[in-house]
Amino acid sequence: MAEPVMIAERTPTVDEYLQLIAAVSWRPRESDAVMLALRNSLFAVCAESEGKAIGCGRVIGDGGLHLYLTDIIVHPDYQRRGAGTLIVDRLMKHVESVPYQNLLVAVLPTPGLAGFYAKHGFNAMKPHNPAMQRWVNPT
Known about the structure:
Number of helices: 4
CATH superfamily of the domain at 6-98: Gcn5-related N-acetyltransferase (GNAT)
Strand order of the largest sheet: 1-2-3-4-5-7-6
Oligomer: single chain
Largest sheet: 7 strands, mixed
C-alpha cells in the first residue's frame, strides 16, 4: 500500500513541475520560464508520497486585492484519491490568512473540474465562462 499523501508548504522544483505537467499532458514549458514563474509565487505547496512530489499548487497575484490559484496538478496515479482537495484546502488556508477585506481569489479550472472547485466555494464568474471566483473576508 502506498504511503499517505502529505502536503508540504514548499515550491516545487523546476524538474518536479516539468514532470507533473508532462504526466497530465499539459503543454511543455521552458525551464527558464518555469523557474521565473515558481520564484514569483506568493505561496506554493507540494503533495508528496513515498518521498516524491505527486502534485502541487500555487497562489499568485498582487497580495492584496486579487489572488489566483494556479498549477493545481495531481499525477494521474494519485487523482481522485483526495490529493487535489488537500492541495486546494492548504492553498485556501493561506489565502484566508490574508487580512484584507473583499479579497478576490480566482481559478481557471481545466475542463471537467468546475464541480471540484465549486465544492471549495468557487462560483462561475459568468455563465459559459470557465473562470470561477470566491470572495474572502467579505464586508
